[in-house]
């Protein structure tokens, strides 16, 4: 056990990714049996973060990020409101291009449950991986790297015959720039998992509410382009800042 713990601690990022991917991908084939397995799969990233933090003796840091909810109201407004603003711009583009406004969509009970349970993902992505990458690189590259890992983690869903790699490509187009934007927000909020969970949940709900019934590929491409523009603005804004400044330090100094 001691040797295993040391091995994990020596390679924290690789160990985290291995555990997060393996634990979720092992459950993925069972999602077709019950949605419960899909909800359980959301906690693969959390498991990876908890195991690596245990191996390193840094569980206190992760625990603090999980419970850190004391932030100015503006950050909760950004976390919840920005995804809806992006979806609203998408709706304007739809109407301007000759489409019909679909009205407001309803939110199902399972969507509300998922809004909360994406905390299982955020403990790993914005609570563990993003801060670790920030120790080595600037906020935009860290967000991009987190986004790539986050995208690939979803791959089993898109290997099903009903989905396909084209759907995976459009999902990647959307989620990677979203990860940059979320990484920037995490950087300003001490990697608060509460804030990250609110933003992740809002990103999942915004399109079904404001663009219900609209072609999924269209919504991902259009809203992904908007997130891409936001990511570019962030890149320009943070250009020239020291790479060694960690997300926590930036947040405290902002």
Structural class: mainly alpha
H-E string: HHHHHHHHHHHHHH
- Rounded to an integer in angstroms, the radius of gyration calculated over CA atoms is 18 Å
Please give the domain count: 1
Which runs of at least 5 residues are low in confidence (pLDDT < 50)?
Answer: 244-254
Any overview of this molecule?
41% of the residues are buried. By secondary structure, this protein is an all-alpha fold. Helix 4 (44-56) crosses helix 8 (119-134). It has helices at 2-10, 12-27, 35-41, 44-56, 59-67, 73-96, 109-117, 119-134, 139-153, 155-158, 165-188, 193-210, 216-238, 247-253. The chain starts with a helix and ends with a helix. Mean pLDDT is 93; it is low at 244-254. It has one domain (72-253).
Q: In a few lines, what is going on in this structure?
A:
With 254 residues, this protein is mainly α. The chain is 76% helix and 0% strand.
Q: Can you lay out the helices and strands and say which pair or pack?
A:
Blueprint: H1 2-10, H2 12-27, H3 35-41, H4 44-56, H5 59-67, H6 73-96, H7 109-117, H8 119-134, H9 139-153, H10 155-158, H11 165-188, H12 193-210, H13 216-238, H14 247-253
Helix pairs in contact: 1-4, 2-3, 2-4, 4-5, 4-8, 6-12, 6-13, 7-12, 8-9, 8-11, 8-12, 9-11, 11-13
Please supply descriptive tags for the structure shown above.
254 residues; 14 helices; globular
């Amino acid at each position: 056990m001691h040797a295993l713990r040391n091995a994990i601690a020596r390679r924290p990022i690789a160990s985290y990714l291995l555990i997060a991917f393996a634990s979720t991908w092992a459950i993925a084939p069972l999602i077709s049996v019950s949605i419960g397995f899909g909800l359980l799969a959301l906690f693969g990233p959390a498991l990876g973060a908890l195991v690596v933090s245990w191996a390193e003796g840094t569980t206190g840091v992760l625990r603090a990020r999980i419970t850190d909810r004391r932030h100015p109201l503006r950050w909760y407004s950004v976390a919840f409101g920005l995804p809806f603003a992006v979806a609203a711009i998408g709706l304007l583009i739809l109407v301007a291009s000759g489409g019909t406004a679909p009205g407001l969509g309803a939110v199902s009970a399972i969507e509300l449950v998922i809004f909360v349970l994406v905390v299982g993902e955020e403990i790993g992505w914005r609570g563990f991986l993003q801060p670790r990458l920030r120790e080595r690189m600037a906020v935009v590259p860290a967000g991009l790297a987190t986004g790539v890992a986050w995208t690939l983690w979803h791959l089993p869903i898109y290997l099903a015959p009903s989905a396909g790699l084209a759907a995976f490509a459009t999902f990647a187009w959307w989620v990677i720039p979203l990860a940059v934007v979320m990484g920037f927000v995490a950087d300003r909020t001490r990697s608060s998992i509460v804030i990250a969970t609110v933003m992740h949940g809002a990103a999942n709900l915004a399109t079904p509410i404001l663009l219900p019934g609209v072609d999924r590929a269209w919504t991902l491409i259009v809203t992904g382009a908007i997130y891409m523009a936001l990511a570019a603005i962030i890149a320009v804004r943070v250009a020239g800042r020291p790479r060694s400044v960690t997300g926590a330090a930036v947040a405290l100094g902002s």
